[in-house]
């Protein structure tokens, strides 16, 4: 899952980025309201963490302008302010949830997962590809009712493949969808994760749902998978 953090407190932003990355999110960070608005309209995210007190453009104005730009990504607003009027203003301008600083990191993560889970109709709570099921909010993977333990990055790669099932995706597309923009991983790292996923998700169940399209990339079969 991809998350955009727009927070001008660089120390807090970096702490959030590290923590969310460890939780399996791909995180991009902006420190300015105008830059955050631009990033949110240029790239696709599952959820946005948006501070209220931002330079150039405050969080309320960013939140209000996103729908006009055709962006309906769920938004969790952060603020050092307290009080019902501030919360009401945030929600009235389009925020989906609200946290007052200081906040519990565990609560933040739980709120983000809840926003993703109840997101738009194009992003169902449980993703399916044949008998393979993924719950992005709970980060649970199952096949034939058997739980499959995955690391955060393995889950993120598999989630990307499932969301693009029956499509051929390149290594570059996988990297853009799974790793944040500040990272520049070796494309060969994708091969390592694909190999690991085949070993965990396919081999034990006599499947070969993750296929290589030579010279192009990879495809995860949905319905009609062939036995290995």
In brief, what are we looking at here?
This protein is an alpha/beta fold.
Provide a descriptive summary of the structure in words.
With 228 residues, the protein is α/β, with parallel strands linked by helices. It has 2 domains: 2-117, Rossmann fold (3-Layer(aba) Sandwich), CATH 3.40.50.2300; 127-220, Winged helix-like DNA-binding domain superfamily/Winged helix DNA-binding domain (Arc Repressor Mutant, subunit A, Orthogonal Bundle). Helices cover 39% and strands 20% of the residues. It is built from 8 helices and 11 strands. It has helices at 10-22, 33-42, 59-68, 84-92, 105-117, 152-163, 171-178, 188-202; strands spanning 2-6, 26-30, 47-51, 75-79, 97-100, 127-129, 132-135, 140-143, 146-147, 210-213, 217-220. Strands 2-1-3-4-5 form a 5-stranded parallel sheet, with helices on both faces. A 4-stranded antiparallel sheet has the order 6-7-8-9, with helices on one face. Strands 10-11 form a two-stranded antiparallel sheet. Strand 4, helix 4 and strand 5 (97-100) form a beta-alpha-beta unit. The longest helix is centred in the C-terminal third of the chain and has 15 residues, at 188-202. The model is unreliable at 120-124 (pLDDT under 50).
Q: What is the strand and helix layout of this fold?
A:
Blueprint: E1 2-6, H1 10-22, E2 26-30, H2 33-42, E3 47-51, H3 59-68, E4 75-79, H4 84-92, E5 97-100, H5 105-117, E6 127-129, E7 132-135, E8 140-143, E9 146-147, H6 152-163, H7 171-178, H8 188-202, E10 210-213, E11 217-220
Parallel strand pairs: 1-2, 1-3, 3-4, 4-5
Antiparallel strand pairs: 6-7, 7-8, 8-9, 10-11
